[in-house]
Amino acid sequence: MDVGKAIRDLRVKAGYSQDKLVVQTGISRSQLYFIESGRCVPRVETMEKIASVLNMRVSDIIIFAETHYPST
């Protein structure tokens, strides 16, 4: 499952640019880049911030990732 791709897709679907999400969550732009590119897995606290801004639960993001980007 690719949580980073799921976050990117959900961010775009919600109409957020990377810059806007960075401002709303307080995470760094480089951190968001590394998450969305799959170079790192976000911490629970970071997932909670992102989910909150996107009006979702962390579980919603994980389910989206499992559904759209399953592990091979």
Q: What does this protein look like?
A:
67% of the residues lie in helices and 0% in strands. The mean pLDDT is 95. It is mostly helical and 72 residues long. The longest helix has 11 residues, at 3-13. It contains five helices and no strands.
Q: Please provide the count of β strands.
A: 0
Q: Please indicate the percent range of residues in DSSP E strands (runs of 2 or more).
A: under 5%
Q: Specify the helix fraction band.
A: 55-70%
Low-confidence stretches: none
Rg, Cα atoms, Å = 11 Å
**Largest sheet composition:** none
Amino- and carboxy-terminal Cα gap: 8 Å
Task: Identify the overall geometry.
Answer: globular
**Oligomeric state of this protein:** single chain
Give helix and strand order, one letter per element, not per position.
HHHHH
Overall mean confidence score, pLDDT: 95
Structural class determined from secondary elements = mainly alpha
Structural features:
5 helices; mainly alpha; 72 residues
Give a brief description.
The protein is mainly α and 72 residues long.
Topology (SSEs and partners):
Elements (H helix, E strand, L loop, with lengths): L2 H11 L4 H8 L3 H8 L7 H10 L4 H11 L4
Helix pairs in contact: 1-5
